[in-house]
Amino acid sequence: MRPDLQELFRMEKLPHIWCPGCGHGIIMRAIAEAIKESGIDMDKTVIVSGIGCSSRAPGYMNFDTCHTIHGRALAFATGIKLANPELNVFVITGDGDATAIGGNHFIHAARRNIDLNVILFNNNIYGMTGGQYSPLTPTGSKATTSPYGNVERNFDIPTLAIAAGASYVGRGTAYHDKLLKDLIIAGINNKGFSLIEAISMCPTSFGRRNKLGNAAKMLELQKTAAINVKAAQKLPPEKLEGKFLIGELHNKPAPEFTEEYDKLIAKLRKEAEQ
Amino acid sequence: MTVNKARLIQGNQACAEGAIAAGVTFFAGYPITPSTEIAEIMSEELPKIGGKFIQMEDEIGSMACILGASLTGKKVLTASSGPGISLKQEAIGYASMAEIPCVIVNVQRLGPSTGGPTSTAQGDIMQARWGTHGDHPIIALCPATVKECFDLTVKAVNFAEKFRTPVYVLLDEIIGHMREKVILPNKEDIEIVDRKRPSTKPGDYKPYRTDESLIPEMADYGTGYKWHVTGLHHDETGFPTTKPALVEKLMNRLMSKLDKYKEEILLWQEESTDDAEVLIVAYGSTARSALDAVEKLREAGIKVGLFRPITIWPFPEEALARLAANVKGVIVPEMNYGQLYLEVERICKDKCKTSGLFKANSEPITPDEIIAKVREVL
Lengths: 274, 378
Known about the structure:
The complex is a heterodimer.
Chain A: H1 24-38, E1 45-49, E2 64-67, H2 73-83, E3 88-94, H3 95-101, H4 103-112, E4 116-122, H5 157-164, E5 168-173, H6 177-189, E6 194-199, H7 203-207, H8 215-225, E7 226-228, H9 229-232, E8 244-251, H10 257-273
Parallel strand pairs in A: 1-2, 1-3, 3-4, 4-6, 5-6, 7-8
Antiparallel strand pairs in A: 5-8
Helix pairs in contact in A: 1-6, 3-4, 4-5
Chain B: E1 6-10, H1 11-21, E2 24-29, H2 36-45, E3 52-55, H3 59-71, E4 75-80, H4 82-98, E5 102-110, E6 116-120, H5 125-130, E7 139-141, H6 146-163, E8 166-172, H7 173-177, E9 179-183, E10 228-230, H8 244-256, H9 262-265, E11 268-271, E12 278-281, H10 284-299, E13 304-309, E14 311-313, H11 317-324, E15 329-334, H12 340-348, E16 353-358, H13 367-377
Helix pairs in contact in B: 1-2, 1-6, 3-4, 10-13
């Protein structure tokens, strides 16, 4: 590990528990780099997670960290941020944690535009429980609970977040880790709800069952299937077939919830004085 | 808020005011009958004192939200009823496991399921004890008057902070919506307890290390302690462990930490018990009917007394056992099909006859019904 990043980790807790070839380690490092480069006060930074593979990341990171219950990371984080708006609050969550069991909190945290930096590790599967399909498992893909191919349709996370009211939305991948880091920094700088989808890979529970090859092959898939949103604007629709967009997908500042609440407190104080 | 004039207020309002008097500055909730007034009052009062109110998207979220706020050092409250309390159970277990102070007001309504939203009941007694999965410590306090709603909410906040455990305030719909004249105490007369903060520097801090108090010191998030909170079994550093010896050490401490403070936690009221031949064990609004029955029966020359557990969990077992040894029978009227009766029967069955008077049809148990039961037992 880069020596300058070591203070951001609980080095004694490493190596992590993720399977060989898992993309989560790359994403965790991108988060650490983003925090480091952004220059935010690490004593005033809290990392919250739910349950699942990605949600084990905070345990390795040297901050106030909270490994909560399945799906509720955003609700805990809402309490932390509202109770003490001085804190920089990050949420690490997975596709199942955030968009299935935690879907309600996801849309409402976005709607409030509360200043949370959410990094959603999307590996298209429930990895911790051995590979069941999630709301991000593509239609037709195999999982232990979709042995004949997934019958359901899947979410598009950025579209969901934008529709719900997130003020900053981006998507990176484990392959595009520099872009991912830059998007996380932009999210930190956004005063409001920032959602960064980080496309990961799960060779163990998703890739193997869907014959996508080893971790290197899956990384290469991310490279070939992703198109930067700026480049995509110049391409005809047929060239975008089967591709997904990466980069800054939405940046529309809006009133932030905890600031608005503090304004209310100030207003009531002023009225009481008069 | 004026606190020392005589006022006519509701039990739910007394809970809200008690919470604020105890130092609660954070409330998250979700609308549900018959507890909604507590959220409404908190939404009006908290921002006036620099506190925070949030109406979350659901009951689970409001429970999780107050736990997050508690981790930053705030005193926190949520309130709900029936289905809402069922939904909160997983996060209540997390609070027991991670030892996050919090208070839950449950204004009981008639269940199961949607049941009777505006109907009174005492059907959540066992849920309060065992609602979340796994063995865990819990405290539940049960007021019978509006004034007691205030006092016990203050106490609940103090217990939560001192013992780092979730604490229930168990009202029933009658107590929550009943209005009584109360004179609330002056601010300076209210005892306030704060959680123990770390006595060590961040580098030496072990968040779940305890001394003989069995209660670990708790750092506020954002103060440099950089500690880890998890619902997994953990060692004294706060990080997960699956080693049986360490899991057992944690569980033994969690399951015994309240025993150490029984004298402080266990509260009850005795009325006319000295020469009683029959003892009524009642709590919440049912205890009001029971008290009336005791007075009427005494006028008729029948020696009957009342034992009212104020702390329902842990149950004041020794106090009841002492009384049970000197009576012919114990009667438990309650607005359910016999929940606290199970506990009373366990404690008293070798000492005297036990019987229950159960009613769960949305109407309160009347003094006359209790009187008839006492005559039947005699």
